[in-house]
From TrEMBL:
Keyword Membrane attributed: no
Transferase found in the keyword field: yes
CDD domains membership: GT4_WbuB-like (cd03794)
Alphabetic keyword roster: Transferase
Listed transmembrane segments: none
UniProt GO molecular function: transferase activity
Organism, as annotated: Candidatus Accumulibacter aalborgensis
Pfam families, per database record: Glyco_trans_1_4
Protein name as annotated: Colanic acid biosynthesis glycosyl-transferase
Length: 398
């Protein structure tokens, strides 16, 4: 099949979404499919740039900045995203290509018009990889009220769904939200598990043994630090455990809340906490090999459910997980069923502390969890399985 894969992030961007799309694209190539990734870029001197990256054809299309900028500029950039990408595509060597399938990844919710245009010109089906229920989670968090802005985002969201022939949600908890959409004839709704390709340990420039956390058991958080995570509770936990000089907390990544969290840790004098900028994706295995427990943090006000990409990364590295997540999240049941860590539902700091110490002090139990985590990663979260499932959906139409 000749496939167009649309996303707003792809390497060298280092977000978990970008890495997931890279792994998916490379797996398509290994299966013998021709895949072209179309991704926006604010750094181009021309309307488009075509390159081959690790065997994958990548078409970068000029667009406004949507990352690491204010909410107003981000929203404007996202609103114009599909239209600017489509304009760049029209002047590129791929303007007349006929595709056998169009796949796009959400977030963002603003790629629907581009997906619709490609589907229409190629008379093919579209597959939406839905990893984020926006704007609902923003309402849950109190970031958005159900006024005109919400209604605008809701229209964009619904249009994106209308364009898709198949939608793959990342956990069973996402199915009820999408059930009304699936009742229209010709539509297919399914669970598409997250995926992660095998990654060797090639080392990491961040050496914990040379840091202020040397010699400690490390709780690591690797990923985005924004409002959706509610990271303050981890600093509260670190403050509770300040006298445990054998325990340290490492935060690696970026996000809208990093500066505030750093300042808060300094204000509290948390000598057991260390912040570090994001590392290259190839360095993540080397980073996690130096750590002992992976942290998954979601604000308990969330009513939508997801399995964060960082959870898969921890499983692949054989790290038991300490999760503080929202009620009803499938991840809690998964962690308990597979016995790969512990999960705290809600905002009880006492419970979180007890679970953290239980993991940290049970060396034998933690070692057994490490093996189960690796087994879970290999059996459930492979890019190979995701590609087979998507190809099956795109090939279903007679």
């Amino acid at each position: 099949m000749r496939i167009a894969l649309l996303s707003d992030a792809y390497p060298p961007i280092r977000t978990s979404g970008a890495v997931q799309l890279r792994d998916l694209a490379q797996e398509f190539v290994r299966h013998g499919h021709g895949v072209t990734v179309m991704v926006p870029s604010q750094d181009l001197a021309s309307a488009w740039s075509l390159e081959s990256l690790d065997g994958v054809q990548v078409l970068r299309l000029a667009a406004l900045r949507t990352k690491d900028t204010g909410y107003v500029r981000r929203t404007l950039g996202e609103m114009l995203l599909s239209f600017m990408m489509r304009r760049g595509l029209r002047t590129s060597p791929l303007c007349d290509v006929k595709w056998d399938g169009v796949i796009w990844y959400s977030p963002t919710i603003f790629l629907g018009p581009l997906a619709a245009s490609l589907k229409r010109s190629s008379h093919c089906d579209g597959y939406l990889i839905l990893r984020d229920i926006f704007p609902e989670w923003a309402v849950d968090m109190g970031l958005l009220s159900k006024g005109p802005v919400y209604r605008f985002f809701k229209l964009v969201e619904q249009y994106q769904y209308a364009v898709a022939d198949t939608i793959g949600v990342q956990s069973p908890s996402g199915l009820p939200y999408m059930t009304p959409w699936s009742k229209k004839p010709g539509r297919r709704l399914e669970v598409l598990q997250n995926w992660l390709a095998p990654a060797p340990n090639t080392g990491c420039r961040l050496a914990i043994s040379e840091s202020s956390l040397a010699g400690r058991k490390i709780f690591v958080y690797a990923g985005n630090m924004g409002l959706a995570q509610g990271m303050d509770v981890v600093l509260d936990l670190a403050e509770r455990l300040i006298d445990r000089t054998d325990i340290g907390f490492l935060f690696v990544g970026r996000g809208s809340d990093v500066a505030r969290l750093c300042a808060l840790a300094a204000e509290r004098g948390l000598s057991n906490v260390l912040f570090h900028d994001e590392v290259e994706p190839c360095e993540v295995p080397g980073l996690l090999a130096q750590c002992h427990i992976g942290l998954v943090v979601l604000d308990p006000r969330h009513k939508t459910h997801n399995v964060p990409g960082k959870f898969l990364t921890y499983m692949q590295a054989g790290l038991p997980v300490l999760a503080r997540i929202n009620a009803g999240n499938d991840l809690a049941d998964l962690i308990r069923k597979e016995n790969v860590g512990t999960a705290c539902i809600g905002d009880s700091l006492d419970e979180l502390q007890a679970l953290a110490l239980g993991l940290c002090d049970n060396v034998a139990g933690r070692a057994a969890m490490c093996e189960r985590a690796k087994t879970l990663s290999d059996s459930r979260y492979s890019a190979r399985t995701a590609v087979s499932q998507i190809v099956s959906a795109l090939s279903a139409r007679p």
